[in-house]
Amino acid sequence: MQVRITFFSRCAQRTALALCIAGSILRVEPALAKPLDYDIRSGTLAGALSEFAAVSGVMITFSSEQTAGLRSPGLQGRFELDQGFARVLQGSGLRVVQVGEKRFVLAKTENGATLELGATSINAADLGATTEGTGSYTTGSTNTATKLALSLRETPQTVSVMTRQRIEDQQLNTLSDVLKQTPGLSVQNIDSERVNIYSRGYAIESYQFDGIPTSLIVQTSASPQSMTDTAIYDRVEIVRGATGLMTGAGDPSGSINLIRKRPTVQFQGSVSAGAGSWDTYRTEVDMSGPLTDDARLRGRAVMAYQQGNSYIDHYQQEKQTYYGILEADLTDSTLLTLGFDYQKNDPRGVSFASFPLFYSDGQQTDFPRSTNAGARWSYRRQNTLNTFASLEQGLVNDWKLKVAVNNMYSARDYSLASLSGGTPDRETGEGAYLYGGDGYGSQRQLGIDAMAQGPFELFGREHELVFGLSASEFHDYSDPDDDDLEMRPDNIYQWDNDTARPISVGKLMNDDTTIRQDAAYLVARFKPADDLSLIVGARVGNYSYKKKAIYNPPYTRSSNSAETRESGFVTPYAGVVYDLNDIHSVYASYTKIYKPQAIRDQSGRTLEPREGDNYEIGLKSEFLDGRVNTALALYAIKQDNLGVATGETVEGTVRESAYRAVAGAKTRGIDMEIYGEVLTDWNVSASYSHSITKDADHERIRTEAPANLVKLWTTYRLPGELNRLTVGGGMNWQSGLSLTTSEGKATQQQYAVFNLLARYDVTPALSASVNVNNVFDKKYFSALDPTFFTGYYGEPRNVMFSTRYAF
User: Would you list the DSSP string of 541-588?
Assistant: First the structure.
């Protein structure tokens, strides 16, 4: 059976999709084209479309802006799909356009266009990988864990996805904002710009851009990934647990994959502006669409600007983001992608670290949240340029080849003074000292990946294979001045954020760190039965780490140099998924852990690489045709040579924390999640995570990361006459933190932070929203830092108003 859809549109406007080229002929399965019974009452158009998709099996992608304020007359009776579409969309000014084998999108009806639909059907109602425009809190496909394009239920690891809708609902404008709301993650600031992200008790250092790995080492003072603006991303995918198959050497914490927005074949755009607490102002512009009449060349540009002060005295920030991407269909089977993103960060009144955690008598300090350890003139400028390209080639028998490259270059210069050293006297305030100085640094990270992917037959069944080569280089250079600032004494009670600038007497040292990895990998997904999947793979790679921190003459301070090489190390991976029925699946997975370390013991000796194993079992479920996902995971991590802070400093240094190697460390935990549209217009994200790490003597270690996390967030579009209003709210709760050093023991008891949202659709294209964070103004330490022995307060109550116009 054939169904003809004909559009007579103005192609000069370049807004049609692939159907616009000549009017399209769609082939559908006859069994799915038969009439169906519907009982959809009149109501909001978004609700009617969701019910229509659930009954008919059609996947209809649309944004909340498209359907805002629109109603549907409903649908009662027995209809073919063409008739159903016509009645549900009657009077809306919208039409349906097919954008893939299994997906429709909504589009505006153009002047003079005619729409002829026969009995149209699609095989499934699954979401695709792209989340923009779906209004969903989940996704239909992810490849961050295995490079295989699998649904969350088919992936034998814990994967969370922060979708475009979730990012916009909570105004999560920086990556650290996103990760604060992500299940299972604890975000802890070292200072005003740098953060540690803890997952399952370990810091995440692996970040990916569209699947190309990069590393973040916060001690370098370079933090381009965690400071990135989210205006340019479609979603953020987070794998918790070891990811050696994808990233090579690394922690058993996880990996964060930032998926960029792509050009669209239909013209679209949006403009937003906002204002909030502490004189914060933000604007965004996003334009996307075809650049040629046949839409074979497409482009997108995004710009964002934000400036404002802070709850921290004398701290202010200005941030600019620019993004451009082009896609070109060189042939019907060849896709070329080129792009860049550039971010300029210019914060003032920054601190190198927060205030000391302890008084000289060992008691924990308790300063006002507004207290800034940094001088008013302190700055740490950082500009980052990402350039990227990929070439995808379709091959015979549904195989494809993809080559991708990402080059990130970041430059920073700074002049810092932070009253963050020492242990001041509780009565007099004497005993604190300044830390900081002037300097320059740069960082370059180059990643290349080439892979082939496709199906193959074995024993009469179809399976899937991915194999490829990857290479990456991380190079960080730091060139600090030698000055009179370090150990300059000051009184913590007389500190007014104004001190003499450092006086340079020459260059202190040259600090070079280079990490190189290259590897070959292979992953196969075997389907011995319809309800059973076996995923096996391995990564064989080489790793080299080289650090040279050499002090320049005539200084006689000790140098800090280290070198590690490992050739041919193998990271195996194995996973099994068994479908109990059409909704539930059980799984188990295993992978190896290998992590060279740059940290040192008290004598200055670099710790040996960490090695271990990561095990995980779980239950995953899909409800409402994949619009709701749930996950339950139990995991165990075993490691040797795990570095644990001793509370002392390395001999011959002032601020470098000393570590000891722990053998037989074990981490056990549980993750639970539910996310998606549980009812029409009701999105939910809820999670609980528990993780404890103990040494061979069964004593708990790594207590600076919380053992328990609960994160809740929900939004609901009101029914009836109030359907233009969406309300939302949530809570983040975590158990206590503690940090024991030679100076004392610091603690933060359990706490909860509550957030609220209200959004009103003034017109289908214009919306206004208000977000209130930390509604009850809870005061808490969000971080107890074992590196610099400091603490950092979370934000007090704050409000952000914003408007958005989509076209």
Answer: EEEEEEEEEEEPTT--PPPEEEEEEEEEEEEEEEEEEEESSSSEEEEE
Distance CA 757, CA 423 (A): 42
Q: Position of tokens 């040797």? A: 640
pLDDT tens column, 14-46: 333 232 322 322 333 333 346 888 888 877 888
Q: How far apart are the C-alpha atoms of 764 and 68, rounded to whole Å?
A: 4
The answer, yes or no, to whether the previous bond of 554 is cis (omega within 30 of 0) is yes
C-alpha to C-alpha distances, 307 to 99, 172, 346, 347, 589, nearest whole angstrom: 38, 15, 9, 9, 45
Q: What is the pLDDT of residues 435-487, one digit of tens each?
A: 888 889 999 999 999 999 999 999 999 999 999 999 999 999 988 887 777 67
Residue 130 located in a structural domain = no
- Measured distance CA(591)–CA(369) in Å, rounded: 42
DSSP class of residue 18 equals G
Total domains, the chain: 2
The residue segments making up the domain with residue 597 are: 255-806
What angle is formed at CA 188 by the lines to CA 198 and CA 233, rounded to 5 degrees?
75
pTM of the prediction?
0.84
CA-only gyration radius of the chain, Å: 27
d(CA 41, CA 756): 31
Is 147 inside a domain boundary? no
The token pair that represents 158 in the structure block: 């814990």
User: At which of 108, 136, 168 does a domain end?
Assistant: 108
Tokens found for residue 390? 């990929």
Residue 193, classed as helix, strand or coil, is coil
Supply the CATH number for residue 443's domain: 2.40.170.20
Last residue of a domain, one of 90, 108, 126: 108
